[in-house]
Amino acid sequence: MPLAHVGDIVLDYERGGEGPPLLAIMGMSGTLLHWGEPFLEPLRERFDVIVYDHRGVGASSRLEGAITIGQLAGDAAGLLGALGIDSAHVLGISMGGMIAQELVLSEPQLVRSLTLGCTYCGGPGSSYGLSAREGLYEAMRSGVRERALRAAFDINVSPAAAADPEMWARFREIGEARAVAMPVIMAQLVAITRHDTSARLPGIETPTLVIHGSADQLLPVQNGRMIASLIPNARLEILEGAGHLFFWEQPARSVELIGTHALAPA
């Protein structure tokens, strides 16, 4: 995969497709492989899609010490600059949605349109799926990789999707192909717990779409409703029955929503 020099680090990325640039920002413990071809392939028919791995993931630079969501937003801005892109449509999911919030708040000129999926803004009214997370953390602490992967899969998708053996096989294959080290995941988790843009979201002027699955166990759907209520003129789309990885469960619908939003006449 190609590497982009961003300040004193490098980020590995993939780029492909036709149309205006779209930067897709992945969530906690995720890799660029987690977007999945069923989602990326039709997205590339509408956009020049850029996906990348955060610090500490894949071939990107090692993560040294703590990290903040603001620093990760700086990485996203730096990647666009390294690729010679003045502005792009931005899609962020989960932690990536938090990064996208910071990006549009700090560098609004870089963001043509904003899509926030299955994410969180912090502040009063936000909610973690605490009981679901405890089961995941227990599995991760066990040191048994198969158990941890299965727990991660079950919490990231709806119960209906969790029963799909083909989807599980895909998730497992990605996890085996590109593992994310536990210290990196924990550093990302600390960054997430300190994230709070709730008081600043009303200042966003960029056209914004919020997508959330109604069956999200990690970040319950009330987070999507809250974000959409705080960003002026934001559009909210709730995907009934979908879990946290809504773009795995409903890829065609997700692509249609993102494309219609981003490519709508100003």
Please write out the topology:
Blueprint: E1 3-6, E2 9-17, E3 21-25, H1 37-44, E4 48-52, H2 69-82, E5 88-93, H3 95-106, E6 111-117, H4 130-141, H5 145-156, H6 159-162, H7 165-177, H8 182-193, E7 208-213, H9 222-230, E8 235-239, H10 246-249, H11 251-262
Parallel strand pairs: 3-4, 3-5, 5-6, 6-7, 7-8
Antiparallel strand pairs: 1-2, 2-4
Helix pairs in contact: 1-11, 2-3, 4-5, 5-7
Number of strands: 8
CATH class assignment? Alpha Beta
Secondary-structure element order, as H and E? EEEHEHEHEHHHHHEHEHH
Unreliable parts: none
Biggest sheet, in brief? 8 strands, mixed
Q: What count of helical segments does DSSP give?
A: 11
Radius of gyration using CA atoms only: 17 Å
Relevant terms:
single chain; 266 residues; alpha/beta; Rossmann fold; eight-stranded mixed β-sheet; 11 helices; globular
Quick overview:
The protein has 266 residues and is α/β, with parallel strands linked by helices. The protein has one domain (3-262): Rossmann fold.
How would you describe what is shown here?
This protein has 266 residues and is α/β, with parallel strands linked by helices. The chain has a single domain, classed as 3-Layer(aba) Sandwich (Rossmann fold). It has eleven helices and eight strands. It has an eight-stranded mixed beta sheet, with helices on both faces. Strand 1 and strand 2 form a beta hairpin. Helix 4 runs antiparallel to helix 5 and helix 5 crosses helix 7. It is globular and about 45 Å long. The N and C termini lie far apart (35 Å). The model has no long low-confidence stretch (mean pLDDT 94).
